[in-house]
């Protein structure tokens, strides 16, 4: 029993074989149990000796089975660890990474430039009251200049804002001038019933800016626009102010910057002028201040409205504004 038993245990390659051996050797009907039962048939004087031998053998076999089991378990664990080892040198699966939309990138840049000059950034409602969009901007009902911004109406008094200028009125109403000047930029989406073409979209972005304090001049406006242009595009680009008309500013200007394509020399893009129009601006009309409850005899300042979509077109040489809104990832992922 001993020789066979020990040999078989040592040769076992798995837990099941070991279990079977344990049953066959030590179980109720196993060889050792049988041997112990057979002791009663032996002469009395031999029984203690054989009994003790059988017990010893039973213990030895049980111990050997236990240590063999531990050995098999350890081997299985080692194999598992080996199989599950992670090869850190294998190249990983690349996870597609998103990024802000190119227009949002330009807006973030503009926000950062103005935050650096002490402006606060406010956002306002895209579904706006007609009063803020027009009346408070010195555009009373039936004013012909309302036609400049063809409008999507929701109800008689509620509309999709046609520009970010209503944020001038909202900021003026809220601001406490005893605490210092108002310096604010407000980016956002605006809507007009424009027919879509390469340079016009019915939905586009603007960044409004307003500075109101005592003794603010046109020179401050020009300097501010120059800082923005230089920081966005580089120092060599110049800003030119041209007289224009907006009901909410007096005087009003449009700002041109040196045309990128031809470096100010004149090309098709700038229609031979060397300049490209990028924004509207001016000195805030006293009526706008008065309607928002600000004393126009004491306070004054400038405002501007920038079109970041056009900035993005210029900066990246995109010749159709609609590309920004089609959500074609092949186009958008270029601006990572
Ligand atoms: C305005 O909307 C004025 N509220 C700007 C302003 C603010 C003037 C403060 C004075 C003081 P305008 O309609 O020109 O102005 O639009 C301003 C800029 O928005 C334009 O220079 C242009 O860059 C952009 N823009 C206008 N219409 C469109 C359009 N359909 N698609 C894309 N960009 C447009």
TrEMBL record:
It catalyses: tRNA(Phe) + L-phenylalanine + ATP = L-phenylalanyl-tRNA(Phe) + AMP + diphosphate + H(+). GO terms for molecular function: ATP binding; catalytic activity, acting on a protein; magnesium ion binding; phenylalanine-tRNA ligase activity; transferase activity; tRNA binding. It is found in: Cytoplasm. GO terms for biological process: phenylalanyl-tRNA aminoacylation. Pfam families: Phe_tRNA-synt_N, tRNA-synt_2d. Residues 102-314 form the Aminoacyl-transfer RNA synthetases class-II family profile domain. It is an enzyme of class 6 (ligase). Binds 2 magnesium ions per tetramer. PANTHER family: PHENYLALANINE--TRNA LIGASE, MITOCHONDRIAL (PTHR11538:SF41), PHENYLALANYL-TRNA SYNTHETASE (PTHR11538). This is Phenylalanine--tRNA ligase alpha subunit. The gene is pheS.
């Amino acid at each position: 029993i001993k020789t066979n038993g020990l040999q078989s245990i040592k040769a076992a390659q798995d837990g099941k074989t070991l279990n079977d051996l344990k049953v066959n050797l030590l179980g109720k009907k196993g060889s050792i149990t049988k041997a112990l039962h057979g002791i009663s048939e032996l002469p009395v004087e031999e029984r203690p000796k054989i009994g003790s031998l059988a017990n010893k053998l039973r213990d030895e076999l049980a111990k050997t089975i236990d240590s063999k089991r531990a050995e098999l378990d350890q081997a299985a664990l080692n194999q598992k660890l080996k199989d599950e080892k992670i090869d850190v040198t294998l190249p990983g699966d690349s996870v597609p990474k998103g990024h802000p939309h190119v227009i949002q990138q330009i807006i973030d840049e503009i926000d950062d430039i103005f935050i650096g000059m002490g402006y606060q950034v406010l956002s306002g409602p895209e579904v706006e009251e007609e009063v803020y969009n027009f009346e408070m901007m010195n555009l009373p009902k039936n004013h012909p200049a309302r036609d400049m911004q063809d409008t999507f109406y929701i109800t008689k008094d509620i509309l999709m804002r046609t520009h970010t200028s209503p944020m001038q009125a909202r900021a003026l109403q809220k601001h406490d001038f005893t605490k210092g000047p108002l310096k604010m930029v407000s980016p956002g989406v605006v809507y007009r019933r424009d027919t879509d073409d390469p340079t016009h979209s019915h939905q586009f972005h603007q960044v409004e800016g307003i500075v109101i304090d005592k003794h603010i001049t046109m020179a401050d406006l020009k300097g501010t626009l120059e800082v923005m242009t230089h920081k966005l595009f580089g120092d060599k680009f110049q800003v030119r102010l041209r007289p224009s008309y907006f009901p909410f500013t007096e005087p009003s200007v449009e700002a041109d910057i040196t045309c990128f394509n031809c470096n100010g020399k004149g090309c098709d893009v700038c229609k031979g002028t060397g300049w490209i129009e990028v924004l509207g601006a001016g000195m805030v009309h006293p009526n706008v201040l008065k309607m928002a409850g600000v004393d126009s005899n004491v306070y004054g300042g400038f405002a501007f409205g920038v079109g970041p979509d056009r900035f993005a077109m210029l900066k990246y040489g995109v010749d159709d504004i609609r590309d920004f809104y089609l959500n074609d990832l092949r186009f958008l992922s270029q601006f990572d």
